[in-house]
Amino acid sequence: MSFVYKADPSRGAMWAKLFAQHAPDIPFKLWPDIGDPAQVRYLAAWQPPDDPARALPNLEVLFSTGAGIDQFDLSSIPGHVPIVRMIEPGIVEGMIEYVTHGVLTIHRDFLDYASQQQAAKWHELTVRPAASCRVGVLGLGMLGKAVLERLRLFGYPCAGWSRSEHSIEGVDCYAGEQGLDAFLARTDVLVCLLPLTPATRQMLDARLLGKLPRGASLIQTGRGPHLVQADLLRLLDEGHLRYALLDVTTPEPLPSDHPLWTHPRVRITPHIASATRPETAVESVLENLRRHRQGLPMIGEIDRGRGY
Ligand code: NDP
Ligand code: OXD
Prior knowledge:
Rossmann fold; 7-stranded parallel beta sheet; 5-stranded parallel beta sheet; 10 helices; about 15% strand; binds NADPH dihydro-nicotinamide-adenine-dinucleotide phosphate; binds oxalic acid
């Protein structure tokens, strides 16, 4: 029996050390040096190998090394193999930091001040209270909820939108198609923390973004294909949207001649909003291995039908 890691090799080396410390009884292998493929029971991967059923015929559990699993082709993974996404505090803390920074940057006009500095222009803009900057988060899962719980401490009026009904203290919760327009109409900074599924692909288009109040901004921390990038550029140029902070794009990396790079009201980061922290990730995986052996449900097991 062995556990294989197939993702960034330098992080893999850290996982190997942590497995040696905390689970020396589990043979840990780094892709592609996996030994006998028939021995592999567990795989932690960002991208599984092509045709996993053939490559690893006795696989029992597939762990994603990230919170999302949209990079997996679910149809290629045998139905009896549970797919478990990464639930660990490092991802959550990173996302809270990134989105909080983004909301503060937009609310406190730091991007306008950056442009003013380039022009050596000393000009005070009116300082608006947090209460005037309404934040709305698409997705009320592990990340959306954590981000909202932090943002509301700053005094931002907070709302969230999800598929099913939620109730979160201090957050106006909207759900489903019927709740979407009202949610958008009250949102000055829209944050996308949805999983990428057939239902959410290309969802951030001109129609949806056009329902935000004029002057609203977007923080895109979900997945590149949620957003119709041409529509975003058009809405920015028309002045309907003020700023876009993009951590994810289509494709990744974004080609060097893409107009998003040079748009004066777009900021781009290379998919770094948050990252799995090896120490807590290994803890989470070991806990799930224990649960799996005891026949208990694992934490973060995805529902293939919903796609997340
Ligand atoms: P969760 O699975 O915990 O939560 C997903 C949320 O989205 C749920 O509230 C769910 O609703 C909602 N949702 C899903 N589909 C729909 C839909 N069709 N309509 C309305 N709401 C929907 O995910 P996480 O919070 O852990 O992560 C969210 C995403 O963040 C990841 O899938 C990934 O794409 C992205 N991410 C990005 C990172 C980065 O560095 N940029 C890092 C980590 C994650 P319900 O509650 O009703 O089920
Ligand atoms: C993730 C990511 O899904 O880093 O964890 O995007």
